[in-house]
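Fig. S4 source data, part A: sequence.
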Amino acid sequence: MVAMVEISFLDASDRAQWEVLARGHDAYGGVERGDEAYERTWRRLLDGGEQAIGIAARLDGTMVGIAHYVFHAGVWGNARCYLADLFVDAEVRRRGVATAMIEWVARDAERNGFPRLYWNTLVDSPARALYDKVAKFSEGLVVYTYRREATGDLASAAKRHQG
């Protein structure tokens, strides 16, 4: 039986588990960051002032995935949500965690007036098998979009996430 994926916004008590997964994300991508980068990013995710939002996915109460995203206006006026980071612990991949997080982010974005969700990935990323199922591939670019174009208010959306 597949366990139910529980997703929530990050809160202060998630710090240690978040950092383990954030470092795992970076190691998987071959990125090296100093401790100060994790501290700075954690503060940004919790303060909401820059519209940086973080979520955690849990299976049986254990954090197994993280995602970071931002709402932003498009240059030509189309509001968007950019999924900056998505990572699932290797032990639980292919159990629906990444799909659940993408869908959760898409619903949050739509609720806040930003139903166009997009992200970037490497051309040879194994995750593309999932992305090709849940989103539309943009020819010529490795950019995926989810849902329809819409407008939204960044300031209002940011205020809703500061609570």
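Fig. S4 source data, part B ends here. The CA atoms of residues 130 and 153 lie 30 Å apart.
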